[in-house]
Each structure stands twice: as C-alpha cells, then as structure tokens.
Amino acid sequence: MALLVDVCHAYQVLKAGGLKEENIIVFMYDDIANNTKNPRPGVIINNRQGHDVYKGVPKDYVGDDVNAKNLFNVILANKSGVVGGSAMPSGELIYADELFNMLKKKHASGTYDRLVIYLEACESGSMFDGILPKGLNIYAMTASKPDENSFATYCGDGTPDHPCFGPCSLPEFKVAKRTAANLTYGSHVMQYGDLMVSFDPLATYMGENFKNHSDDSVDAKSFSTSSSRNVDQRNSELFYLFTKHQKALEGSDEKYEALVKLNKVKSQRSQVDNNVKHLGELLFGVEKGNEVLNNVRPAGKPLVDNWDCLKSYVKIFEAHCGRLTTYGRRHVRGIANICNAEITNEKMHQNAPEDSYEKYEALVKLNEVMSQRSQVDKNVKHLGELLLGVEKGNEVLNSVRTVGQPLVDNRDCFKSYVRI
User: Are residues 7 and 101 in the same domain?
Assistant: First the structure.
C-alpha cells in the first residue's frame, strides 16, 4: 500500500514543481482509493496532516499493465514494446542485472543527460551495490542497505488518532529524508553510481517551482515520529491484521475474519521459513545451513555472481513450495548464497521440499477451522454472560434437561433465535 501512496505523492510534487503532465508517466496498481477497507473512499493521504494525493493523478498504467516489460519499454521510449500483461507487482520479480542492462541500453541511446533513481524497497541497496558503476551519469538513492529491511511508519495507535492510520501508510524512507539527520529509524538511506549528481539542485529534476513550493504533504513539521510506530515493511501486513483484530468488537465478524487472516499469514510465513531452513540443512548440513543462507557479502560485491542461477533457483523453489510472497522474498538472499556456493541444478531439485505446499495448505485449513470453532465458542459464552450474567451464563447455556423433556418448549422461538 505504502508504495502506491508514494507514487501519488511523487506525482503531486512533480506537478507542483512545474513539470508538464506529458513528461510524467505514472505506474500504479490503483487498488487503494476505492478499496472497501478505505474509510475515505476516493481519497489517499500520505501523512496525518496531509491532503489527498490521489486526486488528479493520471492512470497511465494500472492493474496488470504495471509490469516489468512495460516499465522498461517506457524508460527506453520503445513504444512498440508497450503491451498489457502480468508481471510486476504481481508477477515476475525484477532482478538487478535486468535493471542494469536496461540502464546500459538507455545510456547507449544518448537520450538523457543525467538520470536519478529513487528506490523504496526492503534490501533496495542490493539492486545497485557492486552493480551500478560510475560513468553512466546515473545516481541512485535507496531506502535501505543491501541487507536491511525498509520500515513503514505512522502505524497503529499513534497520536493524533486518525481513522485512516490503522495500517502503515508511509515508508519511513520519506520521513527520514525530511527529519533531523541524528534520528535513526532502522534503515539507512544509501547512494550509488555517480554521486556528483547528488549535488545538483532538486529543482533540476523536480521543476523550477519546487524551489518556492510549500506543500503540507511534505512539511517536515508534520513528520513527527514520536507518536508513531516504525514497522519492518515485511511485517506491515501482519501488524495491520493484528491491530485490526485487537480493535474489533468482541464477537464480531470483523474480529473473526481478522483472526483467520492473521493465522493464515502467520502459517504461510512459518512454512516458508521452515522450507528455506530445511533446504539449507539438506544442502550444507544442520550446523552450517543457517550460516551459509544468511551470509552477507561485503559492500561492493553484488548479491550473486550468477544472476541466471538465482532466477532459475527461485523458480525451482517456487515450483516446489509455492510462490514467494512479499515476506518470502526476504529469503532470496539465501537462494543467492546457494548459487554462490555453486550448488548444482540437479542437487537443488533433489533437495527442494516436495510436499511443503500441500502441508502449508492443510495447515491453513486446520488453523481456519480452529479459529472458527474458537470464535463460535467465544460468541456463545459472551452472549450468555450478557443475557444471564457472568456467574450464571455458562451454567444456563450448558444445562441439560431431564430425560423425556424436549430440547426446547417453543420450537418457533428456537428457530428464530438461531437465525438471529
């Protein structure tokens, strides 16, 4: 969610800076503004004091047209290559070597003077570290180091209370850039490529009006983090569901649904963690497996030496264990380290867990049934306490009539109350 909000906010900043609309191309999945969970339909805000950043944003590429092929073709100005399709954000990953190869083509075309890239994602530094050289007049700034998660802020119960801020709404990267340099929020903004570009005035890239632009959506004073929680972006879904469950009325459908989804996400995360851990132990032994998978290469070295190996092994893992979710992608480093250890394709196939996905599906179903049973028990117990009192409720509800007496005297009453 936070990344889509960033796109809308970035458009408003560029438009206010004076850039012509025909020079701004927007890619966004567009599933927030009119989502049934949005308490302000048609409105997206980027901080508590901010205004609507969704209004007026053009929908150049939305839904399944937000994919890697279209993105690269737009950057390369290859009009004939722009088509619909399914990839990023819901399809194939964009790998660092693919991004770099596209940037080299862009440089060879001679169609830019200087190119600036801002990248907000967990481990975003790994897209450029040891890959993007100097000499291409490309400057890249990332939200985090190659081995760091990016964080989201304005989460949960921050003050002032705001109906839109149950989920995390703003990547911490944006807050960090706008607040005092001596404050730390968990991840480190990194720079790659031709760093001299970083000394250029922002107005060079964001429009001349940017120098005099005052926008409450980018006002540093509004980015108070003293009352906000900063949450690892890969945990933001879990945090959102947990908060939703905590705040929902006891016995409500909303509380039950949040619990079911929470347990499903937890089961899925646990399964992918166990799959990767088990794979590491099979390939490298119980003692060395975790160490090899979590190894972080020194600064200046790319994530993996053989990118084709990484792409292939990710596909092998997904074929055996199911598609990697946003959370599951934290293990791509581990799969990269398997490639760096020169594990053969055959050995990878042999050791990838065969039945993990089926086990995961069964575990999800089991947790769903257990959650449903628990919720029904709580609902009935709570109803009894409200109608008959805490002390008598359980006794009355569990009372068994003597042999020969029917379950209920008034069957019409019984049918009616079951429906209620």
Answer: yes
